[in-house]
Amino acid sequence: MNSPTPIHRAPDSPATRQALALAGVFQAASLVDELAHTGQVDQRAWDTLIRATVDTNPESFEAIYGGHPNNLRRGLETLEALVGRKQANPVVLRYGFSLLLLTNKLRANTDMLDSLGRKLSHIQGQANHFGATHENVIASLGEAYQETISTFKTRIVVQGDPSLLQTRMMPERVRACLLSGIRFGLLWHQQGGRRWKLIFQRKALRTALDSLS
User: Fold this and answer.
1) Is Cell membrane included in the keywords of this UniProt record (predicted)?
2) Which of 78, 4, 71 is nearest to 43 (CA)?
3) Contact 181, 45 (CB under 8 A)
4) 14-211: which CATH topology?
5) Mean pLDDT of all residues in 36-42
6) What gap in Å lies between CA 42 and CA 178, rounded to an integer?
7) pTM above 0.90, yes or no
8) What span, in angstroms and rounded, lies between the C-alpha atoms of 92 and 188?
């Protein structure tokens, strides 16, 4: 019998916690792009995002992303591009920054934030019954995104293969993934993350990424 993956305690460094939360945002952005072009997705990265979104009462910071930084590896690699260490995918970066913008709009709209919280609490009950990644749960997450975040004038227009984007459950999967990016955007802000820091504190982000590599 395999033993469970041990929980790796996240450093108390605010910059490192911000980096992990931000990695969740850009992991969502990366998976949306992957879904839109291939119809497939990295399963570990996907499971991490969806479980984080349906768990409305995590027992710790680490529990949100499954206890190991490698669960956010896709997002951490995208951050490496953000700080100039790797080739950047401009579409993924655009999705990521758009998610941060939408997160700020959500934070300013307390009625919508409360509504989304109620929807997620209901979806957590579904996840407890069916399993976090069951298509009923994914459909509900997609619907929650459509009824809240999608009503903002600012929207994320997903580019990809039109035939793929119209296949069964694909719109729901894309919206669920975008919602997970919002979830991590809220976490990033809770940990002290701010957009200006991405411009003026890149050295701190690089150092945080080094500690997680």
Assistant:
1) yes
2) 71
3) no
4) YcfC-like (1.10.3890)
5) 95
6) 15
7) yes
8) 18
